[in-house]
Fold this protein.
Amino acid sequence: MATPIDEAANKLQALLPCYGPDHEERRQAAGAGLIVLKQLNVIVGKVKTIGHTGKQINIAVSDGFRQNRVFLDLLGQNWPYVKTVIGEQWEILTDRMSPSELWERLAAVATEHPALAKDILEKADFDSTLRRGANVLLLLSRTDPRSERLVSACISVLAAKNDWHHWYDSVEAASDILADQFRGDPAIQERITDISSENHIPSSVIMPLSLGWRESELLRHLDFGSGPREVGASELYTKYAVASEAKIPQIIEDDLTWARHNRFQVTMMTKPLLSRLRFDPEVASRIFEHLKASLNPSVKASFPRLLAATGEMTPERIDWCREELGRQQSSSSPQIGYDVLEQVPRSVTLCLLESIGETASPGTQLSPEG
């Protein structure tokens, strides 16, 4: 007689393979149920009936750039079991991605799952493509912090040519890690600057220096000109690192005027801006003074969010936000401004409410200098 588990497994198995515009989500849901029931073995050997007929069906961990974090976490929680069932048939968890990409996606949740983390880092030691992935660098920074292994992996990413997919994500991660764990360390600074040459200072050098070594003479001597041009990461990182405290608020306001038209540039702008705010309290004071005098709705939307995200929302600043909330609510036409953190136009009222209730989360804080 079939047990309830057998009946549930049979129902889930009957859903595979499935097709259609949402087939990834449905396969993941069925796969998750089979993992929880410890019945994942029923899919091994099941084949596709449409398209690549006869090939092993897969339950891909992602759909293009979209990742199902809950499904990834479930795989991590049950990793010893999952690995035992699928053996080396990693194609069961992939769909048009390489094994290195699979491990890189799994690295996003591996910190909480030691068995999975161990497997990923062991593979990364012998796979340079995997080792330079942003998620793998972040995993290494949490499992082996301040180690030479970590430094070497980050420096290797910074020194690599920018001719590979997700280069910017990996450089950003490496820059953030080095600044977070080695801020102000002259030996690390030297290893970063050694990547540059007399005639070329790449973005991969400018980005970490701007986050963790903003007093660097190299940054002070950079000149990007003033003519029409496309503003890139090098210029944005340098600008927010070296500009005087008095100039930062107007720089942010000016950048908000074009930010809504290029989300990628907003992303490049946000990291160095938040870093400067976290480690330069005078900038926070200047931003608040600028905010109080401004009529610009994007300033009212973005500046309080920036102060809250960096732990600079003092009682005086909270009081101002409450007063501005009253002004917005009494207005016949409440304002809409650009929220630089959410990267979309939003109600100023909503931004103020979130700022009052928001504190800097552990995942966004950096270590203090010294």
Q: What stands out?
A: Residues 359-370 have pLDDT under 50 and may be disordered.
